[in-house]
Amino acid sequence: MYCRLWVHCLALYIISFSACILLYFEYKNIASMRLSHIIQSPTNYSHFAVLVRAIPQENGESISDAVQKFFMNYHASSYLSHQVVYRTGKVQRLMSNAEWVYKNLVRLKSTAISKTCVPITYRCGLCGGTSDSFQLYRNEFEPDEKKPCPNNSDSRTKAKECLAAFVFFKTRYAAVIGTQLLQSSNPMLWVTDLAPEPHDVYWSNLWIPYRQLWLRQITVLLASIVFMFLFLIPVTFVQGLTQLDKLQQMFPFLKAILAKTVMTQLVTGYLPSVILQLFFYMVPPTMMLFSAMEGWISRSGRKKSACFKVISFTIWNIFFVNVLSGSVISQLDAITTPKSIPILLAKAVPRQATFFITYVLTSGWVSLASEVLQLFALVYNAVSKYVFRVKDDPNSVPSFPYHTEVPKLLLFGLLGFTCSILAPLILPFLLFYFFFGYVVYRNQIINVYCSKYETQGQIWPIVHNTTVFSLILTQIIALGVFGTKKSPVTMSFTVPLLICTLLFNEYCRQRFSPIFSNFSAQDLIEKDRDDEKHGRMEEIHQMLHSIYSQFPADTINRDVHDANSRQTQQI
Amino acid sequence: MYCRLWVHCLALYIISFSACILLYFEYKNIASMRLSHIIQSPTNYSHFAVLVRAIPQENGESISDAVQKFFMNYHASSYLSHQVVYRTGKVQRLMSNAEWVYKNLVRLKSTAISKTCVPITYRCGLCGGTSDSFQLYRNEFEPDEKKPCPNNSDSRTKAKECLAAFVFFKTRYAAVIGTQLLQSSNPMLWVTDLAPEPHDVYWSNLWIPYRQLWLRQITVLLASIVFMFLFLIPVTFVQGLTQLDKLQQMFPFLKAILAKTVMTQLVTGYLPSVILQLFFYMVPPTMMLFSAMEGWISRSGRKKSACFKVISFTIWNIFFVNVLSGSVISQLDAITTPKSIPILLAKAVPRQATFFITYVLTSGWVSLASEVLQLFALVYNAVSKYVFRVKDDPNSVPSFPYHTEVPKLLLFGLLGFTCSILAPLILPFLLFYFFFGYVVYRNQIINVYCSKYETQGQIWPIVHNTTVFSLILTQIIALGVFGTKKSPVTMSFTVPLLICTLLFNEYCRQRFSPIFSNFSAQDLIEKDRDDEKHGRMEEIHQMLHSIYSQFPADTINRDVHDANSRQTQQI
């Protein structure tokens, strides 16, 4: 008996150490990839721009004047220009959207007729090599008139100035200085952040007064927690479906339908999981909505925040709710007595191992298959193409849904870690899942999704932290197991491992996480010098203004430019 | 019955709102005092200096060369000079200390003989006005030779270079930029912090390799927690003293002494509290030691950290241990079931109210009296003056012991808040304490202690946060009271109050706390311009090097300079 526990303890050590080593090298690798992307990428305009919010207005002065006065006064040597953010009304937004769509369609038609179809070859998902068997025809815009749209200034005068502006600096280093320092002695005024990439800007959130943001964040946090617990209501309702007798009593008309055994099996066997799955499909959009309400200035920030929320939700509602299965109240009881959690988990996890294996099979493998098939997109596309006769729109290619896919992967990681000691039968299934996941996601990222903006590895810290959380949870469960088996020696061997894992996480936080939230002076100065040496600075300064334009006429110009720059990148 | 609870609820609302309003205006007031100190104070040399740690050495290059190369490369326009920190051996430190003491004594003797006694008048503790009834004679150094000491370079060559250096910049703004930005793409290299004031530098901590710091911090955190719980051992031992019978059985020789009733009363009545008080005197030095081990670069940082530790210790060991009175295990049980805490506190606080009133009388009033008398300093001074014939040393005047006095005040604040609803009889005693406390501390700060360095209000955020904690604890206790009296309506009125207090705290954190951790670009640039306009910059640049010198010969020069600048301030 004791011998078996020692084997468990040894396995725990091996798993923890190999996980930590892999995590360390992966973090290091991704950090260096992020750095080399910053250094080697061609001109990234967002590094020159700073978003200033909470601009104070003095006696009727316009926002534009206030910004110019402040930055000319305090950052005269590095300040280049600025661009105020406008708040567009709903009607105007609709109009400008319509205008944009119309122009796009006209241009698409003309380009479709002409010969600008650029053949792009597919690349293999596994090795990244090119193959000639499939070809995708992508429509590209023709670089056309660069003159500003005549009704551009019109739309600006109609719109209302916001207390926010993009301020452009002459160098990357100056821009970063502008964001890192407290500008005014009142920290709620002249709040600066590094601007997101032009495509990444979440315009409507720039209109939110800065003073509201902290309240919004707290409200959304509370709302997410309430949502997490309210979700148990449909779960219990669905579990009620398995008790058909009561349902028939309540709705007599069902009796005729449910007379057949096939129907009964369908309703009791498949319907609950289908309904539950449908409810789960609701979660990522809801979390995206929550994150949008939080007031993120960039789409990537919103997606990152939603990703974190969905991870918390998934781990709570798939792992903990199933493990601690029972009513909401009994789960809350379990949480409020932290001492009993390890033993509770140690008892419950092996009991639920079969369910988790089934979950990997049904939800994991199926989700990979549906990811490859893109069933929804396929049907939507077919209907819009053959029924509504809509032409292909290159802008409709979605970006990778980090907020739905990353949580899935991390959940399976968590299941793997927590079951590895007590129910290792799940591991082959997971290995299979992760292998195919690698192939599928690699293919999807290379060939299917387009990246509209660059997050520069911002998602990785979330993945790292969640994996460390899984690891610690595994160790806590192991502690519970050794506790129930009354083996104090193995318990006392697990505690140092737990401490070491926490220390490892702290070390990684110190060593790597500043890289993901800041840019280093050294890199930026080197890059500035490089650009100056090659005479690229003038060109960048000229582009900045048009690239951060809020209005559709400018948007099209910007798109054109981006398409060009992307082409040059590919070359 | 219900009516009485409503009165309690109303009182809670009034107390909470008035506390929040007072806290807000006090935070605002102290923040503006801090800002005006930064703007209006004469040249603060520390604003020009940056402490750089974790300097990487490449192929045998000296630290000094590495620093110069790095800053000349990346901050050429604003870099002025630098000064490497040396690690002095123990023997050398002793020698230099002896040298310094000898020089001081010689100089003191000569100045005592000459006529440089400057009369400084006492100021009234209450109104700050001057009075002629007392006069303090303070010995001042004569400003003497400014030439560098000949053995200065000698001592430097003997000492070992550390991986740390003070880097001086041409302007305050450039120095702050140097501290706020990540310098290298490896966050564990070229770590920059704004330098502490010259007198505030904690030299021996600058020698600690930066890589150790995070481990030291975690170790100290754990050690402090263990110390907090280990302190219960003397407490229980002392409580054993009240059971004299057992003690007599163990040590038969005590029987003769304890035969008299006076002795018995003394041992059971006074001895336990005296021993406990003596143990408590041990706490602040221990916490100072812990904070020194954490690796703070400044004395003020060390004191601030010790202050926070002593507060946590005091609140735990005086308030919670007395309230939850019982063994360590039962207290831990209470903590691990958070749901039961409000009810537990609600039952226990009124029971302990008499003890707390006695505590205010014995510990609070007595500590004020002993603070005024300075009994220990008086005896020490008398002995050293009349027995050992040591001359007065102006350097022996201590600075204000924030880490012992602030926790005391905050503990009484906590007692006042938590008892205010259930046992308001404590309030007149506390009012008396705080009134006399104001007079006593004002007097002590003006007339007794000397301020060796300026923390610029850094302690206030701790005071604010602890007071908000007290307020929230009061509300939780009130929740417990309404819970035990089964009054759900008053309970549901207390919850919004709790949420509002938390929101208030969050608002203050957003609005004020950045002011206490950063300097704003606007203020620094204005101050730089002002200095440049008045032609003070040159003078400051020349002084910087000598002022941050680590070696005794320089130290004396520095002291001389400081004495001068203090005199000019007073004028």
TrEMBL record, chains A, B:
Q: Where is the CSC1/OSCA1-like 7TM region domain?
A: 216-482
Q: Mind telling me which residue stretches traverse the membrane in this protein?
A: 6-25, 220-242, 262-283, 409-441, 462-483, 489-508
Instruction: List the GO cellular component terms.
Output: plasma membrane
Q: Which GO terms describe its molecular function?
A: calcium-activated cation channel activity
One Pfam family this chain carries? PHM7_cyt
Q: Which UniProt keywords apply?
A: Ion channel, Ion transport, Membrane, Transmembrane, Transmembrane helix, Transport
Q: Which part of the chain is the CSC1/OSCA1-like cytosolic domain?
A: 47-205
> Which InterPro entries would you find in this protein's record?
Csc1-like (IPR045122), CSC1/OSCA1-like_7TM (IPR003864), CSC1/OSCA1-like_cyt (IPR027815)
| Record PANTHER family | CSC1-LIKE PROTEIN RXW8, PROBABLE MEMBRANE PROTEIN DUF221-RELATED
UniProt protein name: CSC1-like protein RXW8 isoform X2
UniProt source species: Dioscorea cayennensis subsp. rotundata
Gene symbol? LOC120280462
